[in-house]
Each structure stands twice: as C-alpha cells, then as structure tokens.
Amino acid sequence: MQLTTDKRLAIDSHCENRFPLDAFWEMGIYSVAKTTGFIAWAEIQFSHRWVNWESICPALGIYFVPQPWSRISVAASCFCAMVSRVVRQLAAVLVSVISINFQRETLAMKLLRAICCCGYHTRMVRSGRHHRLFWFPLFSASQSVLCDVSMVVPDESDSLEDEYTADLERRCTNLEEVRFNPPVGTALHCPDCHYDSLLLQQVEVTAICKRDCRHEYAWGDSEDSGCPLCGDRPHAFRIDPVHPHTAAQRSKCYCRCSTTTETSSPLDGYCPKCGALPKSYQVGSRRYCGVHHEKLLPYQMPTNHLFIQHTPPAEVHQFPLAKFWGEAPHHSGIDDWYCLTCESRYQQWRKEQEHADSQPSR
C-alpha cells in the first residue's frame, strides 16, 4: 500500500472485493464521511478501483451539494429576512417615539399666556402635568382674567381620565362665561380693544446651561431632556417680557427645586421645571419672601444644620422661610435669609403642637 497526500479515501459501493474495514480501523481511518477533520489524506492502490468520497457521495444521495444558483437564492432570502427584521424594528421605534412625543405634548407642564395685538396681555398660567399635579387654564370673559386650577391625581394615572376631570369641568362650565382648559391658539375676548383677538399661546422660555457650558436654548415643557450640547438639566431660566422696550425692573425668582428664573413679575414667576411659585425672589439688591412678599432679614444658620433632626410640618408651604434649624451665634454660622412672618407663624405652629402633645390621650 502506497500513501500519498492528495486524496481522501472512500469505497465505491458498486465495486466488488471491498477491502476489510479492520484495515481502516487499525489505521484510524473511517470508510465513511463522519467528520472531515478526522479522515487521513492518502491514496491506496489495490486490484479493485478506489474513488474519492467527495465524488461518489452526491451520486449516492448521501449529502447534498448546493449549486451556484441555489447559493445565490439562499443568500438573497437571508438578505431579505434581515432587511425585513430591520424595517420592523425601525417601525416599532418610530411608533414609540411618536407616541412619547404626543404624550409629552399633551401632558407635560408648560407656561401659557394670552396676548393681544393691541398690547394687552394676561399673566402666565400653567397647563399640563408635573408628577401628581395637573393644571388647567381658565378664562373668565366677564372679568378678562386668565388663571389656572390644579388637581392631584394618583401616581398610576398616565393621562387625563374622565373620572378625574368630569367633576372639575362640570363645576367650571356651570359658571357664566368661563372657558375651561382652552387649547393653545384659542382666540379670547380682549378687554381693551373689545375684539376676540386675545390669542392664547405658549410662553417662550430660554434655558441657560451650567457655568461650564453656558449654552442658551429654547425650553419647551417640563419634560425636556436638557442641554443639546452637554445633556445636563438646566437650573437657570429666563422669560423675556412681552414688550422688550418697557423699562420695568426684572425679578430673579428662587424655586424650592434649586432653580432660578429671571422674569418680569414674581407674582406669576412659575418655575418652568416644576410649576411652583418662587420661594423667594430678588428685585435689585433686595430679597423678598415669595409667600408674604416681605423683605427678608439676614441671620446665621448653624453649620451642622444637615445633622439636626427636623420634621417639616405639612403646612411648611405657609412659612417656607422660617428658622427651622435655629440660629447660630454671631459670625459662627452660615449666612442665610428668613421672613419675619414665616418665623412667627412657625413658632405659633410649634406652640400648638406642644400644647396638643401635652394633653392626655383619651
């Protein structure tokens, strides 16, 4: 037997006098194609004819050899399946983006204002949702006043349901000449020119990014993602006046969510992020309480105020600028501001709580 390295062996099933399989097993060579990596490469010369197994197996139907045109059809079908899968995924993403944008447009909190071509304009109001609060604008045609009403909804509610708004809408529509939740673009009655030219539109708010970026861009609603350059959520906003030529002094409003807003008036200086009125505001060099509109007084807050246990009362929104953590000795604390009315109401609340706790329980 002479071995060479150009052929892999197999037995022609049509030939006689087959070589005993023991000879192949002793050599570690299989006579059938089990694995291509285990078969040795050799050529054996005997009296009977040996052929290569790559040529006889297709003739016997042992395995299928794909033709060139079949390979092209398989590749084309795989490509079409891949394209179809990609198209379905893109369609699903597009549908989700459209639904999210529609939900944001209808539910996210935004600031509205009615402006007439004659120069008359109303105060700003809120419309939409922020967390559990929904705001609805109301317009009284008899008094030409634009205001908003709020309603608390459960956490699991993702939209305005009839069961939550039906009663509120019914009470508002029972009032004479009251428009409940008018959409943006509604023409209202102007008290100055007596035409229905008072157009309800969204307030243009400019967001100012952090100090490292300082990029200014248009802020749409409370669900905006943030700065298009760095992606950070802004903490400073600017609301330009309706008439830029007016020389009215600007106000800088400080919100409870650590947001500052520069606007024309603190009376409607709503935070563009959370919709709350300012906790305090500054006009020129003076600071005022956002609830009582009194001038704030300086005091020294303790340096360890973060370690002082303090349970804020539920009525904290009535006196937000009280001395909740006490007062530190002179020049030994942190400079802060407090409102005299807030402090007096907070002390009165503490006395009432102490009196209630001293009473024996029944």
Explain what the structure shows:
- The protein has 362 residues and is α+β, with helices and mostly antiparallel strands.
- The protein has 4 domains: 9-60, no CATH class; 108-203, no CATH class; 204-284, no CATH class; 293-362, no CATH class.
- It contains 5 helices and 18 strands.
- The strands form 4 sheets. Strands 3, 4, 5, 6, 7, 8 and 9 form a 7-stranded antiparallel beta sheet that branches. It has a 7-stranded mixed beta sheet with strand order 11-10-12-14-13-15-16, with no helix packed on it.
- The longest helix has 40 residues, at 68-107.
- The chain is globular and about 85 Å long.
- Residues 1-54 and 99-105 have low confidence and may be disordered.
Strand-pairing-aware structural class: alpha+beta
Per the principal axes of the C-alpha atoms, what is the gross shape? Answer: globular
Number of helices: 5
Overall number of domains: 4
Main β-sheet description: 7 strands, antiparallel
Average per-residue pLDDT, rounded, comes to 76
- Provide the gyration radius in Å: 40 Å
Poorly predicted residue ranges = 1-54, 99-105
Strand fraction equals 15-25%
**Total DSSP E strands:** 18
Span between N and C termini?
113 Å
Summarize the helix and strand pattern as letters: EHEHHEEEEHEEEEEEEEEEEEH
Helix proportion: 10-25%
Keywords:
single chain, 362 residues, alpha+beta, 4 domains, seven-stranded antiparallel β-sheet, seven-stranded mixed β-sheet, 5 helices, globular
Brief overview:
The protein is built from five helices and 18 strands. It has 362 residues and is of the alpha+beta class. It folds into four domains: 52 residues, no CATH class; 96 residues, no CATH class; 81 residues, no CATH class; 70 residues, no CATH class.
